[in-house]
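Subject: Sanity check before I submit

Could someone independently write out the structure tokens for this chain? I want to compare against mine line by line before I put it in a report. The sequence has 110 residues.
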Amino acid sequence: MDKNNCLFCKIISGDIPSEFLFQDDVLVVFKDINPIAPVHLLIVPRKHIRSINDLAQDDGTVISHMIMTAKHMAEEISVNQSGYRLFFNVENGGGQEVFHLHLHLIGGWE
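---
Independent answer below. Compare away.
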């Protein structure tokens, strides 16, 4: 899927409304519309990168920023002490449904 038809690109551009819990010039954070946990956030780079398999050498800073932002968001939503999980789904066989790189932050269980 190219970036013109990408669901996350449309969310980032504002063509599809979404509430950003955090945003900067590199990425946005919003709630997953089909959560699998009490807390389920998506950390999504503004740059269209199809999947982990499509990362370029210079995208390392994007990945680092995504992980540090996830850490910050876990603190903001108070799951940092109880625990949370971070993961990337890669390609169809790995569970990727939207082909725009994104990091899942899930948690909030008692």
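---
OP: Matches mine. For the report I'm noting this point. Residues 60-76 form the longest helix (17 residues).
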